[in-house]
Design goal:
Strand content: 35-45%
Number of domains: 1
CATH topology: Rieske Iron-sulfur Protein
CATH architecture: 3-layer Sandwich
Shape: globular
Number of helices: 0
Structural class: mainly beta
Helix content: under 10%
Order of helices and strands: EEEEEEEEEE
Number of strands: 10
Distance between the termini: 10 Å
Length: 102
């Protein structure tokens, strides 16, 4: 059974920003939208493996800082015409605290 792991307070992730998390070999980027939605993706672009945590959040996408690929925060998929995806992780916010399920 997979457990929810407490990461941080919601306020510790800037709006339209990110926070990096490491669990074992997994490098994960937590993203917060302007509307306070939280998403978790593997911290690597499906294009060349660049760190998505260094990208710019706009709406429900992050733009990779290396080659400007747009990756959907909800599904990890690259926007057309690009093709590829990065793994996503379940997240929840409870009483202002962010949790991730690995």
């Amino acid at each position: 059974m997979t457990e929810w792991i407490e990461i941080c307070a919601l306020e510790e992730i800037p709006r339209q920003g990110t926070r990096k998390v490491k669990s074992g070999d997994a490098h994960i980027a937590l993203f917060r939208t302007q509307e306070d939605e939280i998403f978790a993706l593997a911290d690597r672009c499906p294009h060349k493996g660049g760190p998505l945590s260094e990208g710019m959040v706009c709406g429900k996408h992050v733009t990779c800082a290396l080659h400007s690929w747009n990756i959907g925060l909800a599904d990890g998929k690259a926007a057309a015409p690009d093709v590829g995806e990065t793994p996503t992780y379940p997240v929840k916010v409870d009483a202002g605290v962010v949790f991730i399920q690995l």
